[in-house]
């Protein structure tokens, strides 16, 4: 559980070094992973993590408990990351407006229906090849989907928390997660095609996605 | 794959499966298969998304906290001197230990009579050089030159060995404190 205890927060807000240290140690993993999602490079993520901790120590007194502490902290990290990217002239991972899920039945998982590697949840946990493919696809995933999915896969974050962190409506979060998964599976399909037929490689676009084996198996129509 | 009305509920659930959905998964093979794949997909993506924090980052972050200096970050002012003293003493102890071992072997050899054989064997180089002088008189100057450079060469080899050992010793990682 990432949420720190009230006592730790109380002591940290009163500049207790041990409580501050405990808070940082308990949150560093989450901060770093969000930073990786925003910055993408390990060195940049480490710098952002340090900047976020400096800011956390400076403004922790302003945390008033209106939202969960982690929600407040992760929003701080993401905003710092966006500022840093803007300073560098890079495009920050903004959340483009998105209509709510329409009636169209898009199933993000049906594309892996005929790939036996996905059949057993116990086996995939130890399948390094599959994990490497997913890591490669994640690298290609658009920033806003990647950020939403990073928050989604944190065990203790609910949709409401994610919406608060990203400052978007709840339905938009649901759309991002659903479409992020679709997109990820499409990219997995594209990777598969590249590995098999490099000459027939086509760019993956939002309008006409390249439906590879994964996407086909997931059954997107 | 047949679309099922429960699928969206399964995908967007936040808690454990509710009883209605559990019942449905028990009845609907298509949804049950899909649920297993969804779980597998989530497992792989979750594990691929989680990146370990770099080893040195925790120390850097803790160093940001005013008034908190964990023991692992504290390094004595004289750590370089201490390190050299440690290396020097270790070298001295090793040489002493080696000397004792050689002396022990020497005593043992004398006890079992190997000493006489060694004494004979130690005359062999002199015999060989006499033989060389007699048969190739010009070799005298070469042997003389070799004897002249022998001692400086020994010292040079010893210094080279010490230098190599010194260079290859791993330095402790420098920890950034800000």
UniProtKB/TrEMBL annotation, chain A:
In what residue span(s) does the RNA polymerase sigma factor 70 region 4 type domain sit? 132-184
InterPro entries reported for this sequence: RNA_pol_sigma-70-like, RNA_pol_sigma-70_dom, RNA_pol_sigma70_r2, RNA_pol_sigma70_r4_t2, RNA_pol_sigma_r2, RNA_pol_sigma_r3/r4-like, WH-like_DNA-bd_sf
Q: Which GO terms describe its biological process?
A: DNA-templated transcription initiation
Molecular function in Gene Ontology: DNA binding; sigma factor activity
Alphabetized, the UniProt keywords read: Sigma factor, Transcription, Transcription regulation
The RNA polymerase sigma-70 region domain extends over 28-91
Q: Could you say which protein family the record assigns here?
A: Belongs to the sigma-70 factor family. ECF subfamily.
Record's protein name: RNA polymerase, sigma-24 subunit, ECF subfamily
Organism encoding this protein: Herpetosiphon aurantiacus (strain ATCC 23779 / DSM 785 / 114-95)
């Amino acid at each position: 559980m990432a949420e720190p205890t009230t006592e730790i927060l109380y002591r940290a807000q009163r500049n207790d070094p041990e409580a501050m240290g405990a808070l940082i140690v308990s949150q560093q993993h989450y901060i770093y992973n969000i930073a990786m999602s925003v910055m993408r490079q390990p060195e940049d993520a480490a710098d952002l993590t340090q900047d976020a901790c400096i800011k956390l120590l400076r403004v922790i007194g302003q945390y008033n408990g209106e939202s969960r502490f982690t929600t407040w902290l992760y929003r701080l990290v993401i905003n710092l990351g966006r500022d840093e990217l803007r300073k560098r002239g890079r495009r920050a991972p903004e959340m483009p407006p998105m209509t709510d899920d329409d009636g169209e039945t898009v199933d993000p998982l049906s594309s892996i229906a005929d790939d036996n590697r996905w059949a057993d949840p116990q086996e995939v946990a130890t399948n390094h090849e599959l994990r490497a493919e997913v890591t490669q696809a994640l690298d290609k995933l658009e920033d806003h989907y990647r950020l939403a999915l990073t928050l989604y896969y944190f065990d203790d974050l609910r949709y409401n928390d994610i919406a608060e962190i990203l400052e978007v409506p709840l339905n938009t979060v649901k759309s991002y997660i659903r479409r992020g998964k679709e997109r990820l599976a499409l990219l997995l399909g594209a990777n598969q095609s590249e590995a098999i037929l490099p000459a027939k490689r086509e760019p993956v676009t939002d309008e006409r996605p390249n439906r590879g084996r994964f996407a086909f198996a997931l059954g997107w129509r | 794959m047949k679309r099922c009305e429960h699928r969206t509920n399964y995908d967007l659930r936040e808690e454990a499966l509710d009883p209605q959905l559990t019942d449905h998964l028990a009845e609907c093979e298509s949804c049950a298969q899909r649920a297993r794949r969804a779980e597998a997909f989530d497992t792989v993506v979750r594990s691929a998304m989680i990146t370990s924090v770099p080893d040195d980052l925790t120390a850097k972050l803790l160093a940001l906290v005013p008034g908190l200096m964990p023991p692992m970050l504290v390094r004595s002012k004289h750590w370089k001197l201490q390190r050299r003293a440690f290396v020097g003493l270790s070298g001295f102890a090793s040489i002493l230990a080696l000397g004792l071992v050689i002396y022990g072997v020497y005593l043992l050899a004398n006890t079992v009579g190997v000493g006489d054989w060694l004494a004979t064997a130690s005359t062999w180089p002199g015999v060989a050089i006499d033989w060389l002088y007699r048969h190739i008189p010009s070799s005298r100057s070469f042997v003389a030159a070799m004897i002249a450079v022998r001692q400086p060469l020994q010292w040079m080899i010893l210094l080279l060995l010490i230098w190599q050992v010194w260079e290859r010793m791993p330095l402790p990682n420098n920890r950034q404190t800000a």
